[in-house]
């Protein structure tokens, strides 16, 4: 194993650990000496990897934006390119720009073989479709509310154009082939609901956060959707 491969492998091993792991355990897993491990940890830290170590406890990789040179094979490269191009086609302006920026960053740290796979992929995302219905409310309003766990007042019209006012707890945005939806807990219905974003005429912050953790509510929504007759995601009718 080359030094570069060993460093990247060590970084990947640390990424997979949820708790601090001792030098002895890491060295055994990588089949290297503890002295070599200490050198590798020091080198990765010098390169900017957010590795924290404490005597008697071990090492842990903290969250951060550290991105070393990537070693991706052709299949992995094409999977990333396909996903980002799909986002570029079906995302809003914010996500399309983010996909292009991410693609440029990844391309800059790929080896020549992977760069060739990126320039000439064998996989294509398909036609972009016929476009999405126009939204009266920018998707960024929902995105920020989701990240802040902020309740939203919305003016909504269902498929029969019946209007209603809802107070919702926004959990996630969904990008389907022809529409975009927001997954939320609806206080009016006292249940999980999905709302087409193009049917929301207005949205405003309620001035308070919804209780609990968004991750827990999302897990509950996934469990709720598993009870659907076909076991797959199907937007409900409001």
Automatic annotation (TrEMBL):
Domain called Helix-turn-helix type: residue spans: 6-59
PANTHER family: PROTEIN PAFB, PTHR34580
Start and end residues of each WYL domain: 139-203
SUPFAM superfamilies: Winged helix' DNA-binding domain
Family matches, as Pfam families: HTH_11, WYL
Protein name: YafY family transcriptional regulator
PROSITE patterns attached to this UniProt entry: WYL
Coiled-coil stretches noted in the UniProt entry, renumbered to this chain: none
